[in-house]
Specification:
heterotrimer; A alpha/beta (344); B alpha/beta (324); C alpha+beta (432); A: 344 residues; alpha/beta; Rossmann fold; 5-stranded parallel sheet; 9% strand; C: 432 residues; alpha+beta; OB fold (Dihydrolipoamide Acetyltransferase, E2P); Dihydrolipoamide Transferase; Chloramphenicol Acetyltransferase; 3 domains; 7-stranded mixed sheet; 4-stranded antiparallel sheet; 26% helix
């Protein structure tokens, strides 16, 4: 899909401002590099065990939306939304400590991948039964509404997840209660090996939104500015107390379902097409065209990112694994507990 | 001191917590305008307002999930399941979301899921179940099962103040049938402590919920035959008062484990294992169980009567055990 | 129809008996009333006469095997009643109260003479390991271990004859009470040992299981020590007059009555007279009460090869000297030949023991519960004593009284003993 012409951008751009654009570039590139390391290096070296799920090719969705959150807002990112963690204040060290199952990571080794969060930072992770977070998003939005400070909740999920009952119950509930929650659907064309035509019977998932009583839109999910714009509208609506919205971001899963999946069920041509539509490449090109960055700046950015990642990985690798006996601790919250490693 | 029914005691407990703590609020089907299917929340909408007594669509999963989300924001939601049978519709949210969250990444999930359970009212398979073991078996949840009106109030208050997800079972058969002196003031009954419902020396009957009353009825009869029965009311299953159980077993040397729940995977199996492991040398006879059979709860009165453990079955078991 | 020979019940509360020795073997002819086998029970050892004449065709219970009362132990073919005794359960070989064969309580006595090394498996202290199970429960077995109870001795009233908690607790309580009420240390004679009991060699030790009698004695001694406030007082008595009297009348006595005139009836008589003056010596303690016994039943301890037995001389205060002498001799003889009846080992109110018979100067005997005093008679020896400020040689004896200071104070005890001393030293009674 063609990117917006520079002129168009210039006309429409009040926001994001340059700083935001640069930040978005940073987060996009950071995500790409970090996930590359997770999926294609550390996992293959046996340093990461279990499952590895990355969002290659879908980075724009998290970046364009989460970057607009303020304090008191809540985001429920999916496993394809790496950037959300960094945007909300977690460090690369937090991320790698958790992926490597370390004792001093944000879950003390109890959870894998990005299954960690922090209520104070307004980030709540998924559980593996995807879709379960949608009702939670209604809960956080309910409280935000009652507190009337204009805060909103974003909840991310894939197109496959929309087949789960919880998503429907939550959409209904959000509309009935007029909750400030934005349902962001990452439609990356495949749910594991299931293509969309075997997942749902409508053309666009956003068609469901009015059926529940909320506006919906389908956008180019590989255009971070488009994502930004759609999210901005939905957030504005929600902050004004006008209730929920549904944004379907069309994109493509540029990898297997997980690191162990070669995705041979995906026709090669689709991968080739997707590569040409890479959200990072598109955005870089646009920013260069807008003269916000040049190739030198890009190079510096890449170096900086590489250094940050290397440092975080080295830190995590040298960090200790948990003691076995820790497994049986902290099942219950007693006497005003709340443990959370805030990261280092 | 006022005499309250089991139901009124629950209501009073919730009411007091709502007054005491503005972060406590209620969600459920028909709990607001209608006051709840069993009228447990009657009057609360008028008193506390629509923000705190919320009538929900029929979406058990979403209701529980929303409660979890709200809890993460610092609230203390109390979710009503119209019948605890319907808790299965929200099962995933309870066992995968609520139960594990603190263990996984740290936050407290102070929600209470409460509702009427149990048989004896001709409710049929979906309005009569005792499904507590689904949640006893899920680490991270607490499971509370009061038998008296006094305990119902003290325990609902304790459950609401607990920082963990608590599944709170109110036995519908007891709702209006049992009454108790219930103090008007603020008091708590600790979760995890059993109660000696009746002292005895020959046989310990360990039970909970409506079966406590069945056990007491049987004990009274058995007293006439010279069999002195001690009845232990567990009051909660997770955590449960292991020391009280073992102490009673050591005292009486013979034990009957009684519950209305079905047999396989029922709490009696867990207790039997613990007793045999930790009080083996205090046993003067095998560990007996009196439970419902492994079937869904049937509707027609003769079938339901056959299904439910009753005083006569407890008496028969006690006689056999006493003669061993 | 063969005659079934059963294990008799010797004593009301006895539930079982052990066959100690078969006096006949299979195939032997046996006369009616002829001694057929010897048994040991909680209360007494006894010879059992054959209920019928005929041939001993079956022996169903081996020596040292314990069976319940009324169990069939043998069969005799020939004339005579079909069954001997009341209702006979149709037990086959090795019947057991609890429906399973009894484990042998001790192993069979070895034929080898004492001292010969025997390789045998270490006998188990309790019944469990030694053979088929006695039904009980984990609780019962724990109590058995704690209270040193041989479950083979406990009657089970639970289902299928299981020993229940009630049963064992009753047994334990009854054991203390039985020891208390019978007034005997233990009436059970030990099995006649042809050789040493089976032994297990392990390092430098020899492990020998206690006989039933030994166990009873052990339990009673500890119980007595725990119950009474034992104090012992010692008196020295000059036996000159008794010796003279004895010398004077011994021959005549023997000729007339066919009895040897021993010292024992003298001591007994002196004690009885003193008891009349100090009835507290003949009492017992029940809770906070002192129970004065009207009867004076003197237990006379008799040493047997493997233990102690205390036959009781009932109504001793009603007997003349001759009567006492007769009774004492008779009891001792029958004690040694295991022909005492149950009544003869129960109901004592005072005990006389004679450590002197083996040379002890004096002992500090343990009170025979539930009595409150026991008189010990030391060896009678000639000693140098001071008489009228000069040394004289006199036959002397130490008499000791162990008494229960809960109810008897030293002054009373000493006065009692002084009376005995006076009686003996100033003997003037007729000896006919």
């Amino acid at each position: 899909m063609p990117g917006l012409k520079a002129a168009t951008i210039a006309k429409k751009v009040v926001e994001p401002d340059v700083k935001t654009l640069e930040r978005m570039l940073y987060y996009l590139k950071l995500t790409r590099e970090a996930e590359q390391l997770l999926e294609r290096v550390l996992y293959r070296q046996g340093k990461i065990v279990g499952g590895v799920y990355v969002g290659r090719g879908q980075e724009a969705i998290a970046v364009g939306s989460a970057i607009q959150l303020v304090e008191g807002d809540v985001v429920f990112p999916s496993h394809r939304d790496f950037a959300a963690w960094i945007i909300r204040g977690f460090t690369l060290r937090d991320v790698f400590l958790n992926w490597l199952g370390r004792a001093h990571g944000p879950t003390r080794g109890r959870e894998n991948t990005n299954h960690f969060g922090d209520v104070r930072r307004g980030l709540i992770p998924v559980i593996s039964p995807l879709g379960d977070t949608c009702p939670l998003a209604c809960g956080t939005a309910l409280v935000q509404k009652q507190r009337a400070r204009g805060n909103v909740t974003l909840v991310h999920f894939g197109e496959g997840t929309t087949s789960r009952g919880d998503v429907h119950e939550a959409m209904n509930l959000a509309a009935v209660w007029t909750l400030p929650v934005i349902f962001i659907c990452n439609n990356n064309a495949y749910a594991y090996s299931t293509p969309t035509r075997q997942q749902y019977a409508v053309k666009d998932l956003s068609a469901r939104a009015p059926a529940y009583g909320m506006p919906g839109m389908t956008i180019d999910g590989n255009d971070v500015l488009k994502v930004y714009d759609a999210a901005r509208q939905a957030i504005k609506r929600a902050r004004a107390g006008k209730g929920p919205s549904f944004i379907e971001c069309k994109t493509f899963r540029m990898t297997g379902h997980s690191a162990h999946d070669a995705a041979q069920y995906v026709p090669k041509e689709l991968f080739e097409m997707a590569a040409k539509d890479d959200p990072l490449a598109r955005f870089e090109k646009e920013l260069v065209a807008m003269k916000i960055v040049d190739s030198k700046r890009l190079g510096q950015l890449e170096q900086q990112i590489a250094k940050e990642i290397d440092e975080a990985v080295a830190f995590a690798e040298s960090s200790s694994l948990p003691e076995g006996a820790d497994a049986v601790k902290g099942v219950y919250c007693e006497a005003g507990c709340v443990w959370q490693a805030t990261g280092v | 001191m006022p005499v309250l029914t089991h139901l009124e005691a629950v209501r009073q407990g919730i009411w007091e917590e709502m007054e005491r703590d503005p972060s406590v609020f209620l969600l459920g089907e028909d709990i607001g305008v209608y006051g709840g299917a069993f009228k447990v929340t009657q009057g609360m909408l008028e008193k506390f307002g629509a923000d705190r007594v919320i009538d929900t669509p029929i979406s058990e999963s979403a209701i529980v999930g929303a409660a979890v989300g709200a809890a993460l924001m610092g609230m203390r939601p109390v979710v009503e399941m119209q019948f605890m049978d319907f808790i299965a519709c929200g099962f995933d949210q309870i066992v995968n979301m609520a139960a594990k969250m603190h263990y996984r990444w740290g936050p407290a999930v102070p929600i209470v899921i409460r509702g009427p359970s149990g048989a004896g009212v001709h409710g049929g398979p979906f309005h009569s179940q005792s499904n507590e073991m689904w949640f006893v078996h899920t680490p991270g949840l607490k499971v509370v099962v009061p038998a008296t009106a006094y305990d119902a109030k003290g325990l609902i208050k304790a459950s609401i103040r607990d920082d963990n997800p608590v599944i709170f079972y109110e036995h519908k058969f007891l709702y209006r049938r049992i009454k108790d002196d219930v103090p008007e003031e603020d008091y708590l009954v600790p979760i995890g402590k059993a109660r000696i419902a009746r002292e005895g020396t020959d046989i310990a009957v360990i039970t909970y919920g409506a079966m406590v009353w069945t056990a007491l009825e049987a004990a009274q009869e058995l007293e006439k035959e010279g069999i002195s029965v001690e009845v232990i009311d567990l009051r909660s299953l997770v955590p449960y008062d292991e020391e009280a159980v073992l102490s009673s077993v050591r005292k009486c040397s013979k034990v009957i484990l009684l519950h209305e729940d079905t047999r396989i995977g029922g709490f009696a199996g867990e207790l039997a294992a613990v007793i045999s492991e930790k009080a083996f040398e205090d046993l003067d006879g095998p560990i007996f169980r009196v439970t419902a059979p492994d079937t869904p709860v049937p509707f027609s009165p003769p079938l339901e009567e056959y299904f439910l453990p009753n005083a006569q079955r407890v008496i028969d078991a006690a006689r056999r055990l006493a003669a061993y | 129809m063969p005659t079934r020979v059963i294990m008799p019940q010797l004593g009301e509360s006895v539930a079982e008996g052990t066959v100690i020795r078969w006096l006949k073997k299979v195939g032997d002819k046996v006369e009616r009333d002829e001694p057929l086998f010897e048994i040991s029970t909680d209360k007494v050892d006894a010879e059992i006469p054959s209920p019928a004449a005929g041939t001993l065709t079956k022996i169903l219970v081996k020596e040292n095997q314990t069976v319940e009362v009324n169990a069939v132990v043998a069969e005799i073919n020939g004339e005579g009643p079909v069954t001997a005794g009341v209702s006979v359960p149709a037990h086959e070989a090795a019947p057991h109260p609890l429906g399973v064969p009894a484990p042998p309580r001790d192993h069979e006595p070895a034929a080898s003479p004492a001292g010969a090394p025997l390789i045998a498996p270490a006998p188990s202290a309790s019944a469990e390991g030694a053979g088929p199970k006695i039904r009980s429960s984990p609780l019962v077995r724990r109590i058995a271990k704690e209270k040193h109870v041989d479950l083979a001795l406990v009657k089970g009233t639970g289902q299928g004859g299981r020993i229940s908690k009630e049963d064992i607790l009753k047994y334990v309580a009854g054991r203390s009470a039985a020891a208390a009420t019978t007034g005997s240390v233990t009436p059970a004679a030990p099995p006649p040992v042809k050789g040493p009991s089976p032994i297990a060699f392990s390092r430098q030790v020899q492990v020998v299981p206690m006989t039933p009698m030994r166990k009873q004695i052990a339990e009673h001694m500890i119980l007595s020590r725990r119950t009474s406030a034992h104090v012992t007082t010692v008196f020295e008595v000059e036996m000159t007059r008794i010796a003279e009297t004895r010398a004077q009348y011994a021959a005549e006595f023997e000729r007339r009555h066919g009895l040897k005139l021993t010292y024992t009836p003298f001591f007994a008589k002196a004690a009885i007279e003193a008891i009349k003056q100090f009835p507290i010596i003949n009492a017992s303690v029940e809770g906070d009460n002192i129970v004065y016994e009207r009867d004076v039943n003197i237990g006379m301890a008799v040493a047997l090869d493997t233990g102690l037995i205390v036959p009781v001389l009932r109504h001793a205060d009603e007997k003349s000297f001759l009567g006492l002498a007769r009774a004492v001799t008779d009891l001792a003889e029958r004690a040694r030949s295991k022909r005492l009846s149950v009544d003869e080992v129960q109901g004592g109110t005072f005990t006389i023991t004679n450590p002197g018979v083996f040379g002890s100067l004096f002992g500090t005997p343990i009170i025979n519960q539930p009595q409150v005093a026991i008189l010990g008679v030391g060896a009678i020896e000639k000693r140098a004593v001071v008489r009228n400020d000069a040394i004289a040689i006199r036959p002397m004896v130490y008499l000791v009284l162990s008494f229960d200071h809960r109810v008897i104070d030293g002054a009373v005890a000493d006065q009692f003993m002084a009376k005995i001393k006076a009686s003996l030293e100033n003997w003037s009674e007729a000896v006919q």
